[in-house]
Amino acid sequence: MKLKIAVLPGDGIGPEIVAQALEVTKAVCEKFGHELVYEEGLVGASAIDAVGDPYPQKTHELCMASDAVLFGAIGSLKYDNDPSAKVRPEQGLLTMRKQLGLYANIRPVTTFPSLIHKSPLRPDLIENADFICIRELTGGIYFGRPQGRSEDGQVAYDTCVYSREEIERIVRLAFDYAVKRKKKLTIVDKANVLATSRLWRQVSQEIEKEYPEVETEYMFVDNAAMQIVQWPKRFDVMVTENMFGDILTDEASVITGSLGMLPSASIGIHTSVFEPIHGSYPQAAGKNIANPLATILSAALMFEYAFGLMDEGKLIREAVNESLAQKVVTEDIAEDGKSYKTSEVG
Ligand code: IPM
Ligand code: MG
After folding, report:
1. Inter-CA distances, 217 with 13, 208, 239, Å
2. Would you please indicate which residues are annotated as catalytic (active-site) residues?
């Protein structure tokens, strides 16, 4: 099979972790006899520095012409510490999600036997926890308008907007995932306070009728935040709006043992994007110490979701498990002071 991939390393540790995921991709293609064609594109702060735009048209065209996008991370301290910056690296990521129509972000939360004790949570609570969080990715408060400041700069506002259509497509997708898994869906909202959440609940209750085989529950986001760490094994598929999903999935990463372990797939209308859920970790940039496993596991998702190549994805996951078992890991998950570099783990 011919695999045409756009590679967007981005900022901070992005280039280092993507380089390793690319090596893994190449190795798997070689082993299974696939032809890999890839091209790199600019995105984020590095794209602002180079061409003044965090998601240049050229990068968009590259993504549109590819079968999948392997993405690193976006963000830089220079912009984090300058709230007045007009052009921000994160706009690149948001514009990419919007323009590629990536309305669903799939974040699988699983545990790794050798990392159970790395979690601050009790082993018996998290052992064999296995759920997926489906985060709506192109709506809500991230994109709602108006957004801005009053003229005197003393008042700021964001707007949360959801349409029936946006809710329907993501909730339907979540039900379809639940049907293929343990047939349990948790729909997370804040319907006791927010109008958008009440529309989510109304639309979800309508769709629920089409899936009688799925056990559906509704949960307020504050309660979900508590239950994710209290009783993670109760979840199978969870679906929620953009910002709740952003927050809950960082929280859920403590089940895995490290934020450096969680991959994601963003799917929708055009080319799918595969990226770790963690950020650009600028403090570690260039030091060859960042954990490349979330990106390598994202490459596994890429083989499965973008190309339907299940054996290839499985092999990558097995290799990750084997490397964890042999303790060939970066310092964030190392024990007894023995750790390996990003490139060695790759
Ligand atoms: C994520 C990240 C992004 C988000 C940031 C970098 C804009 O936190 O993918 O979870 O909030 O979506
Ligand atoms: Mg996030």
Report:
1. 38, 10, 11
2. 142, 190, 222, 246, 250
246 Cα to the center of ligand 1, angstroms:
7
Residues 6+ apart with CB under 8 A from 338: 327
Give the ligand with the smallest distance to the CA of 142.
1
Q: Is the CB of 277 under 6 A from ligand 1?
A: yes
The alpha carbon of 196 and the centre of ligand 2 are apart by a number of angstroms equal to: 21
Which among 173, 157, 154 is positioned nearest to 165, based on CA atoms? 173
C-alpha pair distances (Å), 90 with each of 47, 77, 170: 11, 12, 23
Nearest-atom number in ligand 1 for the CA of 243 is 11
CA distance 298 to 181: 20
Kindly give the residue spans of alpha helices, DSSP state H, lying in the chain. 14-32, 45-51, 57-64, 77-80, 89-99, 123-126, 164-180, 195-208, 221-230, 242-256, 293-301, 307, 310-325, 342-345
Which tokens hold the place of 338? 């023995």
Whether this prediction's pTM lies above 0.90 is answered by yes
d(CA 337, CA 327): 11
Residue 206 corresponds to which tokens in the numbers above?
A: 């309508």
**What is the residue-wise DSSP string for 191-245?**
TTT-HHHHHHHHHHHHHHTT-TTSEEEEEEHHHHHHHHHH-GGG-SEEEE-HHHH
pLDDT at 265: 97
- Measured in whole angstroms, the distance separating CA 265 from the mean position of its chain's CA atoms is 6
To test the pocket of ligand 1, the residue of 43, 76, 90, 244 to mutate (highest count of ligand atoms within 8 Å of its CB) is: 90
Q: Which residue, among 233, 214, 3, 277, has the nearest Cα to 125 in the 3D structure?
A: 233
Beta strand 272-276 with 68-73: parallel, antiparallel or unpaired?
A: parallel
Q: Is the pLDDT of residue 53 over 90?
A: yes
DSSP state at residue 34: P
The number of the ligand 1 atom at minimal distance from the alpha carbon of 264 is 9
Burial 113-145 (b: 16+ CB within 10 A, else e): ebbbebbebeeeebeebebbbbbbbbbbbbbbe
89-145 per-position pLDDT tens digit: 999 999 999 999 999 999 999 998 888 988 999 999 999 999 999 999 999 999 999
